[in-house]
């Protein structure tokens, strides 16, 4: 009979657990929460199983007072109290401990146990030891609740970390895509213009940057080269740099003159970029076969001209305010430069000059000019390579603080 009852209890228990497992799977698939009362009922039923075994599956040869203590099924209470921690709910763990204590006392009473409050009796007597077991179950539930609370904290922290990692991976992917798009907007071929050699280069400090360079070959063969620096670096300035490039292409492409093109570009940017942002931009117009070039700088400087025959530098400042600050383009007329064979015009952003070494010393304009002097015989692309190599060696491994962009125009 005991065997049949044990088998029946286990079958009933297995059926309840399978039903609960199926409900959990369904809730996961439908992304719906299981009601709190279902978890409560499942916890209570599980924890009461050992009490049923204690009450109805006991040896008849044992004294009724000792039956609650001698039945090994009572150890099952601790098993189910421990397993309740897997629900990661401290309240359910405490409910499991309380259910174990109450159901155990009820099973003991069913077997004929009666509590005794007489003084002088040992705590190991059945009348008092059963109380000790019940208190142990309650304490076990409280301890399980504390453990469940700690496990829950660790699981939540792991989930937050995993979610953060996924978000970072998504951001990295988006930034990588933005970088590839931004790099694709840079010129992939150097223009051929009689009497000049031109090269440009860009390396952002982050995945994306606020610097860009560009050149346009107009229908009459004239080349307009430009270099711009949007305040800041990152995804926001990169978007503004792309907008600026589009407006510049439209403005310079109309062939209305350098000053008029800058006025149009400033008006468009002033309406779009918003307060607190601006763009420094320098544009150079090169006419095939003509030694004179026009240059206008909207807040961008310094600019360097190496005079080959005299082995000296001219350092140029800006003629006007940066673009986007005012609705009106405030600037002096374009500057006319007369370039002789071997003269080099270098347009660069301040990322070169302001890169510091480990002692906090900036690369500076003097080292910048000396590097140009040492590579004066080279092609413009080699001049840029020399500049980057020099500033990289000077930095001594410090992080690149700002975007690097350079355009070199050499008179042949």
What does this structure look like?
With 412 residues, this protein is α+β, with helices and mostly antiparallel strands. It has 2 domains: 2-167, no CATH class; 188-411, PPM-type phosphatase domain (Phosphatase 2c, domain 1, 4-Layer Sandwich). It has 11 helices and 10 strands. The chain has helices spanning 2-30, 36-56, 67-70, 76-83, 90-110, 126-185, 235-252, 258-272, 351-354, 364-374, 380-395, and strands spanning 196-203, 211-217, 223-230, 279-286, 292-298, 303-307, 312-316, 335-338, 344-348, 404-411. The strands form 2 sheets. A 5-stranded antiparallel beta sheet has the order 1-10-9-6-7, with helices on one face. Strands 2-3-4-5-8 form a 5-stranded antiparallel beta sheet, covered by helices on one side. Helix 7 (235-252) runs antiparallel to helix 8. The model has no long low-confidence stretch (mean pLDDT 88).
Largest sheet: 5 strands, antiparallel
Structural class, by secondary structure, is: alpha+beta
Task: Give the N-terminus to C-terminus distance in angstroms.
Answer: 110 Å
Average pLDDT, all residues: 88
CATH superfamily of the largest domain: PPM-type phosphatase domain
The CATH architecture of the largest domain is 4-Layer Sandwich
């Amino acid at each position: 009979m005991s065997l049949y009852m044990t088998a029946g209890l286990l079958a009933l228990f297995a059926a309840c657990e399978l039903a609960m497992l199926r409900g959990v799977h369904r809730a996961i698939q439908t992304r719906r929460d299981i009601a709190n009362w279902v978890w409560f009922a499942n916890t209570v039923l599980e924890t009461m199983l050992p009490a049923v075994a204690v009450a109805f599956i006991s040896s008849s040869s044992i004294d009724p007072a000792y039956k609650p203590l001698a039945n090994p099924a009572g150890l099952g209470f601790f098993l189910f109290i421990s397993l309740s921690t897997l629900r990661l709910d401290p309240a359910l763990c405490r409910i499991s401990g309380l259910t174990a204590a109450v159901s155990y006392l009820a099973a003991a009473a069913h077997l004929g146990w009666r509590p005794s409050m007489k003084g002088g009796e040992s705590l190991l007597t059945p009348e008092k030891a059963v109380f000790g077991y019940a208190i142990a179950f309650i304490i076990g539930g409280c301890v399980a609740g504390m453990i469940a609370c700690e496990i829950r904290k660790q699981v939540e922290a792991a989930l937050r970390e995993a979610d953060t990692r996924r978000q970072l991976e998504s951001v990295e992917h988006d930034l990588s895509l933005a970088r590839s798009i931004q790099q694709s907007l840079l010129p992939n071929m150097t223009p051929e213009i009689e009497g000049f050699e031109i090269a440009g280069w860009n390396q952002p400090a982050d995945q994306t940057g606020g610097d860009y360079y560009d050149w346009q070959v107009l229908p009459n063969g004239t080349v307009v080269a430009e270099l711009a620096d949007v305040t800041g670096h990152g995804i926001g300035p990169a978007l503004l740099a792309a907008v600026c490039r589009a407006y510049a292409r439209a403005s310079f492409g109309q062939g209305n003159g350098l000053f008029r093109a800058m006025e149009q570009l400033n008006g468009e940017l002033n309406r779009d970029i918003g307060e607190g942002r601006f763009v420094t931009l320098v544009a150079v117009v090169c006419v095939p076969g003509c030694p004179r070039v026009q240059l206008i700088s909207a807040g961008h400087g310094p600019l360097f001209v190496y005079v080959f025959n005299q082995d000296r530098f001219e350092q140029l400042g800006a003629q006007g305010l940066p673009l986007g600050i005012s609705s009106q383009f405030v600037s002096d007329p374009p500057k006319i430069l007369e370039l002789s064979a071997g003269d080099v015009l270098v347009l660069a952003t301040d990322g070169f000059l302001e890169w510091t070494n480990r002692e906090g010393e900036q690369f500076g304009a003097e080292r910048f000019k000396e590097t140009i002097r040492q590579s004066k015989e080279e092609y413009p692309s080699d001049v840029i390579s020399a500049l980057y190599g020099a500033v990289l060696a000077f930095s001594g491994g410090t992080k690149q603080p700002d975007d690097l962009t350079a355009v070199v125009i050499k008179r042949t």
